[in-house]
Amino acid sequence: MKVYISADIEGICGVTHWDETELEKPASRAAVEQMTDEVAAACEGALEAGASEIWVKDAHDSARNIIAERLPREARLIRGWSGHPFMMMNELDSSFHCAMMVGYHSRAGAGGNPLAHTMSGQVVGLKINGILASEFRINAYTAGYCKVPVVFLSGDRALCEEAAGWLPNLHTLAVKQGVGDSTINLHPKAAVERTRAEAALAVADAAHCQVALPEHFSVEIQYRRHPQAYRAGFFPGAKPIDPLTVGFEHNDYFEVLRFILFAL
Known about the structure:
Helix 1 (28-48) links the parallel strand 1 and strand 2. This protein has 6 helices and 12 strands. The strands form 2 sheets. Strands 3-2-1-4-7-8-9 form a 7-stranded mixed β-sheet, with helices on both faces. The chain has a 5-stranded antiparallel β-sheet with strand order 6-5-10-12-11. By secondary structure, it is of the alpha/beta class. It starts with a strand and ends with a helix. The longest helix is centred in the first third of the chain and has 21 residues, at 28-48. Helices cover 29% and strands 26% of the residues.
């Protein structure tokens, strides 16, 4: 059984300030350690549930954050960015039994995390079929495109509640809660222990966690600065909506991902 894990850092227990998310900053060391521990715990939970092979995508910033030697030997770590439109779900395909997302965060414009954003700081909001989309939603649709069930999500409470409202069979674990520019966190070791336990339950429940794809996708990206929208408007099929917003429509979700890749 193959299991896929995509990992970000802004939803990791304790991470509160941008300095903790940038490798060149000394404050990032503790965040990287905790990110590694939570991802390793998700791997261990998957192994307990019967996984024999685990692929981990380091999906934050440079994608060179996770400490490889602390993952189980059954894990393969995907570092860096290939440039493929799957982005944070790179190398996912239909051969995987299920997918998990660890350390994810609230979308741009949401109040559930002081580090809330969607893909980049350029974006004020990204809508899919009229719904403001988080990176979780974007990537869950990618899993649905590959017919891979999404079974587990950890991160901030607001994102977990939003995701559970959309996918009621999804196993979620809120390791933190954002309040203004602060966070309230579980103890780091408790976050690790609960990640391992919940991941094991989630992998065993994969049959109930398939993500359904809409028949048609209408995407709108609103940018902070109008030059970014102007440039994105030249993508084939894209249409300017106003000076800050560009739209794109397609029936094929891969084409949506191609647009997002080049528009950000």
